[in-house]
User: Which sequence fits this backbone?
């Protein structure tokens, strides 16, 4: 539906058939990327938002966040974008300060506006956020003093948060993904660089340890396609990474794939049409706006149009 609305706005030749298609077409797979907030320098915290259209390889600006924010979690639930926790920049009596957030914002594509929602129990930056069975899960992170292993979920129907079983390990700067009805928490820092992975079964409300990655990673990207979990980039405690690995849940095994053209940490990653888009980040020497996409069938990388802004430790999601 979003894709049809955008097509209606930007491509007038499709308007004749728009109303019929909008009423009859079922929900389709994600077709656009949204890049939200992040950092563009040591002291440059962003509130800007932009959207990428693969069809014409271009970006446009959208309504900004209510406050500049980075190191937050991001997901899509009911065709709306949720931005969860992170570190936000506030101004009080002309003095700027940053704090770890338990706040949540939601973007509605129909109105291009952001709305504040119910706050989490805990403040969390560098957390993992996923959606499973219509509920939003916020995992781990850092509250400004302690690394966390707690997990809470947001239930939209009742507009409240509930605690679920905590992870086995404290994790921040990690990645979370959903595959085959399970939640995976991968790598991260807590308080050392990790390559371990654990899996949550909602039917049992419990976590189990599964196969570890080849590389330790923090601040890396993750995407799910073709029945595999892909992790890409990040930092292993020594250097910025260009490597990518693929996890097979049936074999409980990781396989190393062809690396990116350049290393990057603090990246965004998302999947459209079975391509893994890896966006922005930091190369070790500069903040990036560049975009590469990975084709898992041919095990190759292609370049796409860069973002309007350089971004690191930001949110990227497919909608």
Assistant:
């Amino acid at each position: 539906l979003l894709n049809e609305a955008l097509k209606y706005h930007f491509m007038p030749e499709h308007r004749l058939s728009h109303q019929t298609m909008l009423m009859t077409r079922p929900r389709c797979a994600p077709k656009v990327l949204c890049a939200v907030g992040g950092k563009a320098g040591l002291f440059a915290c962003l509130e800007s938002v932009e959207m990428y259209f693969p069809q014409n390889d271009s970006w446009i600006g959208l309504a900004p966040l209510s406050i500049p924010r980075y190191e937050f979690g991001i997901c899509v639930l009911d065709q709306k974008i949720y931005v969860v926790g992170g570190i936000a920049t506030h101004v009080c009596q002309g003095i700027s300060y940053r704090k770890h957030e338990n706040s949540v914002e939601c973007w509605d594509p129909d109105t291009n506006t952001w709305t504040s929602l119910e706050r989490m129990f805990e403040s969390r930056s560098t957390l993992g956020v996923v959606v499973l069975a219509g509920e939003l899960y916020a995992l781990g992170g850092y509250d400004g003093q302690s690394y966390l292993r707690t997990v809470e979920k947001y239930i939209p129907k009742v507009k409240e948060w509930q605690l679920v079983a905590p992870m086995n390990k404290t994790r921040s700067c990690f990645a979370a993904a959903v595959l085959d009805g399970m939640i995976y928490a991968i790598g991260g820092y807590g308080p050392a660089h990790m390559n371990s992975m654990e899996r949550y079964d909602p039917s049992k409300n419990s976590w189990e340890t599964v196969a570890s990655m080849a590389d330790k990673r923090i601040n890396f990207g993750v995407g799910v396609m073709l029945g595999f979990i892909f992790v890409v980039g990040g930092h292993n405690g020594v250097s910025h990474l260009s490597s990518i690995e693929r996890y097979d849940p049936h074999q409980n095994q990781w396989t190393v794939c062809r690396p990116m053209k350049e290393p990057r940490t603090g990246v965004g990653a998302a999947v459209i049409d079975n391509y893994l888009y890896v966006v922005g980040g930091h190369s070790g020497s500069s903040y990036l706006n560049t975009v590469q996409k990975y084709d898992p069938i041919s095990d190759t990388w292609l370049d796409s149009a860069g973002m309007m802004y350089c971004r690191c430790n930001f949110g990227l999601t497919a909608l």
Remarks:
- Residues 1-30 form one domain.
- The mean pLDDT is 93.
- The chain has two domains: 1-30, 31-318.
- The first helix runs from residue 2 to 10.
